[in-house]
Amino acid sequence: EIVLTQSPGTLSLSPGERVTLSCRASQSVSSSYLAWYQQKPGQAPRLLIHAASTRATGIPDRFSGSGSGTDFTLTISRLEPEDFAVYYCQQYGNSPRYSFGQGTKLEI
Amino acid sequence: EVQLVQSGGGLVKPGGSLRLSCAASGFSFSTYSMNWFRQAPGKGLDWVSSITWTGDNVYYADSLRGRFTNSRDNAKNSLYLQMNSLRAEDTAIYYCARLINGYQDYWGQGTLVTVSS
Q: Which residues of B touch A51 (CB under 8 A)?
């Protein structure tokens, strides 16, 4: 099983700031099959990034993903008030044995 | 517009059963594989089960195999999760999600399953 570890667990930031979230895998994620999701309270996860760096349809360009192998990052270039949420990384290279990181919470 | 509308959650006693449904619209349901995930209160996301577009192949998380059954009816554009022998630790919000190229692009709204006496 591929274990994903996200850091930090919680970040306190202000609108307008730049933030980088980390996701580290216990073994190499094949073909950069890594996705990022945003989840707000009471809502389902929303796809942001797939294939490590491809933005999903309708996702603003302030969101960007990068990385390969075991180290991946999600960067939000300038935080908007609606970006405060929990972010999860997910590997799907070992599908259907999907696994998620434990999440990073962005709070104001 | 792609929509996945879930139903069937609720309160059930330990050892009981429940069937969740996920009604798909706005896309050709019969050509997509589908996933179930769950999220315990205040916790992260866990994969539950996957089913291919034909329904011929179904995969389960190791801890759930034998208790949960994932199925689909392409004629009704619907996905189902039959859950038997429920335990307190199965308490969670359950999500269905469309699978594309290995990842999930659309999710249902989630349905809460509470297992308690």
A: 101
